[in-house]
Design a protein that fits this description.
Helices cover 40% and strands 11% of the residues. It is an alpha/beta fold. The protein has a 6-stranded parallel beta sheet with strand order 4-3-2-1-6-5. Helix 3 crosses helix 4.
Length: 251
């Protein structure tokens, strides 16, 4: 089964509209929504009329851009963001003094999603915004059994041995605690069409997620063009709600 997830729904009006255009053209199956961002309110309202499967895109690295953000919430962001963005190794290190800030930011985003969409998220991700950093995983902030995006799947030789070891460890944790796909890829680089053909072919035997960012002009052109439509012909498309049992995320 293939899941094509558009990230950053609600981050900006451009991101929202580009994602909805792709969904209308049946080029994506799901979208992950950011909350407390400038277009979060409008995005939630638009999604309610589409049937689009929407998950929560956790954000621990980018300042909230929406109106009326509580000062207390911003203070927690001002602690977490410099830590996670200050070093490439910060995401793998647990910071005990930031445990409360991570927990507050996690809960606030879950609650805001439920306020905007009227239900719990269909799935959870974050990726570049670090939903699988050490403070989230070691703090067990994500409830067990949730549908969660795993780390990238790389082909042999793509990354150094230490990077691959780290990703294998995280994959093991995610797979043991949560419902996830067998493989997860970025649609980039678009020029490597043979790679994309191999990824799509693997979805006939395994559950595969592809991450896309339609706000990117190059990706939007590819997603809405005729080439991808031909590539998807005969590929089993699905959604996160089809992973595992019918269980829902408990918060």
């Amino acid at each position: 089964m293939l899941i094509i997830t558009a990230d950053d729904y609600g981050k900006t009006a451009h991101a929202t509209d580009s994602i909805l255009r792709c969904y209308a053209g049946k080029r994506i199956t799901s979208a992950s929504a950011m909350v407390f961002m400038e277009d979060s309110e409008r995005a939630a309202s638009l999604a309610s009329n589409t049937g689009l499967e929407v998950g929560l895109h956790f954000n621990f690295t980018m300042p909230f851009s929406g109106p009326g953000i509580k000062a207390s919430l911003r203070r927690h962001q001002e602690k977490v963001i410099p830590w996670l963005t200050g070093s490439r190794f910060a995401q793998v290190l647990y910071h005990p003094l930031l445990a409360e800030s991570f927990a507050v930011l996690f809960r606030a985003q879950m609650d805001e999603f439920k306020r905007l969409y009227g239900h719990t998220p269909a799935f959870l991700n974050g990726h570049h915004h670090m939903h699988l950093c050490a403070n989230v995983l070691a703090g067990r902030l994500i409830p067990g059994g949730a549908r969660v995006r795993n780390t990238f799947t790389f082909e042999p030789g793509e990354k150094d041995p230490l990077n691959r070891l780290y990703r294998r460890l995280i994959n093991g944790i995610v797979s043991s605690r949560y419902l996830t796909t067998d493989r997860f890829y970025s649609i980039q680089p678009l020029r490597e069409r043979e790679r994309l053909f191999r990824i799509l072919a693997s979805s006939r035997e395994e559950d595969v997620e592809i991450e896309v960012h339609p706000e990117n002009a190059e990706e939007l052109a590819f997603l809405t063009g005729g080439g991808l439509g031909e590539m998807l012909r005969g590929i089993p498309m699905g959604a996160f709600r089809q992973l595992g049992s019918k269980q829902v995320i408990q918060s």
